[in-house]
Amino acid sequence: MSTRPPATAGPTPGADGPSPGTGGAVPARPRLTVGSLAQLKATGMPITMVTAYDFPSARVAQDADVDVVLVGDSAAMTVLGHDSTLPVGMTEMLVLAAAVRRGLRTPLLVADLPFGSYERSDEHAIDNAQRFVKEAGADAVKLERGGTSADRARAIVAAGIPVMGHVGLTPQTAGQLGGFRAQGRTASGATRIAEEALALQESGCFALVLEAIPAAVTEQLMPYLHVPVIGIGAGPATDGQVLVFHDLLGMSAGKPARFVKRYADLHEQMVRAVGRYAEEVRIGKYPGPEHTYGIDAEELRAFRESLAARAD
Ligand SMILES: Nc1nc(=O)c2c([nH]1)NC[C@@H]1CN(c3ccc(C(=O)N[C@@H](CCC(=O)O)C(=O)O)cc3)CN21
Ligand SMILES: CC(C)C(=O)C(=O)O
Ligand SMILES: [Mg+2]
């Protein structure tokens, strides 16, 4: 069982109930920890991760029983409508992460340190990582690239907060990488990614994300990586996969990345539902009697008299 109380009042209905088919005798899956991910890697059980940015998307991740939920800085694009991840800051990320926390019970909650929140100094990076833990209830934070980022990772880990590293296509520095395009497609490019991944691992990161690199590069790299590796566009050799919530549900605008598989077309479904609602309002079909409130006939009569008296 969880060693922490449920995150909130208003938990996902059924989220901490018994598992289906257990007759109610078996408690819900315990809350995942950094250690559980290492255990999944050790046993060869693929790790499942998805982004979430608010209470309803967190409830979906909870009820779908994924292992890890990332409050990604991709929020800048998926929920705030920017065309890069750069504009989002700690203020916005803290609001989103706290909402996600309220919808989650069992998955590990990781929050993306946004652009500008960790580069300046170890102290600044620790401050912001601590804000995610203290103010939003995050379990861990994620940061991009090796180099000085690996030093920041080491400092945050030393301060007691688990860090996930992210290499390959790192959207916060996409400008230097030629845009949103696959990385590590040359020997030198792949070597740079390997060096960054190893530096982050050496710094004490509990897990790594590999984004948009050739599957064969991932395959060569995996034997050197002893922490759980989560891929997004990195092929099948990783210990798990992550996708952006809006991408896999068909809710994101624009051309999806090559690695995106759409498991639903929710944008289309939502447009149809809202369109039907608007149409029913226009033709007077909504609201129906079942959506309206009644009043006692005597109370209504008295009310009409009171109105009439006012008008006199
Ligand atoms: N909704 C969403 N999903 C994501 O996965 C995501 C974001 N947003 N925002 C930040 C980055 C950007 N992402 C991307 C975007 C495109 C490719 C991609 O596959 N690009 C193609 C075409 C590049 C080109 O125009 O040359 C490629 O083959 O690399 C990869 C990652 C991943 N991240
Ligand atoms: C795609 C994942 C790894 C991410 O960093 C994000 O959503 O911001
Ligand atoms: Mg991110």
Automatic annotation (TrEMBL):
Keyword Transferase applies: yes
Residue sites binding Mg(2+) per the record: 73, 112, 144
GO biological process per UniProt: methylation; pantothenate biosynthetic process
EC number, UniProt record: 2.1.2.11
Entry GO MF terms: 3-methyl-2-oxobutanoate hydroxymethyltransferase activity; magnesium ion binding; methyltransferase activity
Residue numbers spanned by region Disordered: 1-28
Cofactor: Mg(2+)
Binding site for 3-methyl-2-oxobutanoate: 73-74, 112, 142
Known pathway: Cofactor biosynthesis; (R)-pantothenate biosynthesis; (R)-pantoate from 3-methyl-2-oxobutanoate: step 1/2
Residues annotated as the enzyme's active site: 211 (proton acceptor)
Statement: the UniProt record of this protein carries the keyword Cytoplasm: yes
Compartments (UniProt record): Cytoplasm
Subunit structure: Homodecamer; pentamer of dimers.
Family membership noted in the UniProt record: Belongs to the PanB family.
Function per UniProt: Catalyzes the reversible reaction in which hydroxymethyl group from 5,10-methylenetetrahydrofolate is transferred onto alpha-ketoisovalerate to form ketopantoate.
Protein name: 3-methyl-2-oxobutanoate hydroxymethyltransferase
Annotated organism of origin: Actinopolymorpha cephalotaxi
